[in-house]
């Protein structure tokens, strides 16, 4: 090898050192039992509680080039997956230290780049055996949660053909009174609140799938679901023996008892044995986040019921929005149909006037201000405007614009305006005076949802408005908590906007601690996108450190094989001819790569209190590696330990308070992309540092052998 690649002083690789120091701040954010951090804003002295690598990086001083690259890499991972950023951040630090150790041992930069890149590719191929399809996950979860004699009624034996019969009945058996019969009307377009009836989700029943309750004809399997339509306990006041859909009469019956219900209450229990389908999968992907899990189970149950009419089984994130309410206990968090948002006290008075009235709705795809112009608008050159409104008599041009906008809205009898961007404050005041409700900062997904069900068409400027652009059928009301009370949060009031048939769901997130609000919202969206990506991939990884342990075992095996020149398997494992002259460095580089996985497992165990120290965690990992090697098949050993629930278990864990043996799963694409992005960043910084030290011409040979392009640039 050229001498230019030998003896590079590791102390001069400033970029790698910066990556290592920045990543060190995120060690406690790794794993399901992460330790949150307080970020203090020096300008306002306000603190925010975070548990995400994205929020951490946004708060750090990233003046260095390496810090900027790290920020771009984490933002790219967050934009695409919304999960895996903490793993990415930790591996960047671990592998930066590993590369620095290789440089201290005078390992050529080219060998580090090639061996590490090929080693990670080999790991990604090896861990494919630990992937499990979503169908197999559901079968395993449901079969493991069967309770004997759960269904004793013959009414449970209902075939698929019976579901098409409109005369199917929903039996509601009470302890004292005679059974009550409620007819069922499949896929009935009733009021959305009826799908979230509190009576059907008692504290003894969890958020089960209504769809999976009735078995198809010929299906002899036994399964138990809960939630809407299941026997939850012998002491339950109301027992639903079987159900498929909620009928008009059934909904009216329960509505008369419970009133206008806003959504599933987050305080209700979610027993692992009672969930099936998307709800149970959401539990295994929640990684111990109870509040987000229960909200997501509610959303999954609702969307799964609607999906039976549309034939789709995916989690539609475009139909999910959040509303953060500060000042209420966290037990008030729930899922509410429609769009829940915050308005001022003045707007609340307008809502009280418009309540229970059908509204004409207008959608604005932009700002509702006088100076707003759409993206790409270019003013004509060499034109000077002397007077934009020649006919203006007295007053200012702004007053004329306000009057014209108000005239347009009143001429089309618009009661409700949803604006994607900002709204002029003076216009807002005039609209309030004329009982017109204007909501600003509405996302595009919300505009599209209301456009589909109200036939409203978004416009960019009010001058484009015509009768066909105005929709109808929207309703607005003050948002009520699960106890039926409207909430007044001081300066802001939560309101709910709905329309018949709208699929939009709002996760209402509540807390009494201001610094915790951002944390709760981040955790919720992480849970949502974990389930979303799992359904898109149609497969998941075994969780609990199983994948990383197999990577560690595999890399160590390759390192041992590389020390045996006569063993051709070690050479065939890699396909880069450049490594033929760097065989002596393979073992060192592979061991350095493996050290990243070992540190990852050790820190996760320490954060989850499965080990008292990192030394004890490393000892536990080494013990598993020895047993896996003695077994002859590391993947078989890991799979067996995972099913037994003994993998990296140290007496306590993220699910210590829940049912023993609950499986944990991880996303496939998000996890592997986090690995690749982390290593790509480290190798890019290594290459840049080496180019600065040795010069671009001498480093040209290295550039030609970098195996992968850096996808985050």
UniProtKB/TrEMBL annotation:
Q: Name one GO biological process term.
A: photoreceptor cell maintenance
One GO molecular-function annotation for this sequence? ATP binding
> Where does the record place a coiled coil?
none
Q: Which domain of life is it from?
A: Eukaryota
Q: What Pfam families has UniProt attached to this entry?
A: Cpn60_TCP1
- Recorded protein name is BBS12 protein
**Taxonomy-wise, where does this protein's organism fall, top ranks first?**
Eukaryota, Metazoa, Chordata, Craniata, Vertebrata
């Amino acid at each position: 090898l050229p001498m230019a690649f030998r003896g590079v002083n590791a102390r001069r690789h400033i970029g790698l050192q910066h990556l290592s120091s920045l990543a060190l701040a995120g060690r406690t954010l790794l794993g399901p039992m992460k330790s949150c951090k307080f970020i203090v804003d020096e300008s306002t002295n306000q603190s925010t509680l975070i548990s995400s690598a994205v929020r951490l990086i946004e708060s750090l001083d990233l003046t260095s080039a390496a810090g900027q690259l790290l920020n771009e890499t984490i933002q790219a991972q967050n934009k695409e997956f919304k999960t895996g950023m903490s793993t990415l951040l930790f591996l960047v630090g671990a592998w930066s230290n590993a590369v620095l150790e290789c440089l201290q041992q005078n390992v050529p930069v080219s060998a580090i780049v090639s061996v590490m890149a090929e080693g990670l590719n080999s790991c990604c191929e090896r861990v494919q055996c630990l992937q499990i399809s979503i169908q197999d996950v559901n079968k395993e979860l449901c079969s493991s949660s069967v309770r004997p004699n759960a269904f004793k009624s013959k009414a449970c034996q209902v075939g698929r053909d019976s579901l098409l019969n409109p005369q199917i009945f929903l039996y509601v058996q009470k302890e004292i009174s005679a059974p009550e019969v409620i007819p069922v009307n499949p896929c009935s377009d009733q009021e959305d609140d009826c799908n979230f009836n509190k009576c059907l989700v008692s504290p003894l029943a969890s958020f089960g799938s209504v769809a999976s309750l009735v078995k198809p004809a010929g299906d002899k399997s036994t399964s138990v679901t809960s939630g809407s339509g299941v026997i939850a306990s012998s002491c339950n006041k109301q027992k639903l023996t079987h159900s498929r859909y909620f009928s008009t009469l059934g909904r009216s019956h329960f509505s008369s008892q419970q009133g206008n219900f806003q959504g599933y209450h987050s305080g209700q229990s979610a027993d692992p044995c009672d969930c099936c389908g998307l709800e149970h999968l959401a539990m295994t992907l929640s990684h111990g986040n109870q509040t987000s899990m229960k909200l997501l189970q509610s959303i999954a149950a609702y969307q799964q019921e609607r999906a039976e009419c549309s034939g789709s089984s995916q989690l539609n994130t475009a139909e999910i929005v959040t509303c953060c309410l500060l000042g209420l206990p966290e037990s008030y968090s729930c899922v509410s149909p429609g769009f829940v948002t915050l308005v001022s006290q003045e707007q609340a008075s307008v809502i009280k006037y418009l309540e229970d009235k059908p509204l004409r709705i207008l959608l604005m795809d932009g700002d509702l201000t006088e100076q707003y112009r759409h993206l790409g608008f270019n003013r004509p050159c060499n034109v000077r405007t002397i007077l934009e409104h020649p006919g203006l008599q007295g007053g200012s041009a702004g007053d004329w614009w306000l009057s014209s906008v108000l005239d347009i809205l009143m001429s089309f009898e618009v009661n409700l305006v949803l604006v994607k961007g900002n709204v002029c404050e003076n216009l807002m005041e005039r609209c309030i005076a004329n009982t017109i409700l204007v909501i600003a900062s509405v996302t595009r997904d919300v505009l599209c949802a209301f456009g589909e069900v109200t036939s409203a068409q978004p416009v960019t400027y009010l001058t484009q408005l015509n009768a066909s652009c105005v929709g109808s059928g929207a309703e607005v009301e003050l948002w009520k908590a699960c106890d039926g009370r409207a909430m007044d949060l001081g300066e802001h009031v939560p309101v709910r906007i709905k329309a018949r048939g709208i699929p939009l769901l709002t996760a209402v997130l509540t807390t009494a601690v201001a610094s915790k609000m951002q944390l709760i919202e981040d955790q919720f969206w992480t849970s949502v996108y974990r389930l979303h990506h799992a359904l898109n991939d149609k497969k998941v990884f075994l969780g609990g450190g199983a994948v990383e342990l197999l990577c560690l075992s595999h890399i160590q095996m390759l390192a041992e094989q590389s020390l045996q020149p006569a063993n051709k398997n070690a050479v065939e494992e890699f396909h880069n001819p450049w490594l033929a002259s760097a065989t002596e460095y393979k073992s060192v580089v592979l061991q350095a790569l493996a050290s990243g996985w070992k540190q990852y497992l050790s820190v996760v165990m320490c954060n989850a209190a499965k080990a008292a120290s990192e030394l004890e965690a490393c000892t536990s990992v080494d013990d598993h590696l020895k047993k896996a090697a003695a077994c002859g098949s590391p993947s078989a050993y890991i799979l067996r330990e995972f099913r037994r629930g003994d993998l990296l278990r140290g007496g306590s864990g993220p699910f210590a308070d829940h049912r023993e043996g609950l499986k944990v799963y991880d996303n496939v694409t998000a996890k592997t992309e986090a690995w690749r992005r982390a290593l790509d960043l480290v190798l890019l910084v290594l290459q840049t540092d080496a180019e600065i030290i040795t010069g671009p011409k001498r480093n040209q040979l290295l550039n030609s052998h970098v195996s992968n392009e850096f996808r985050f640039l």
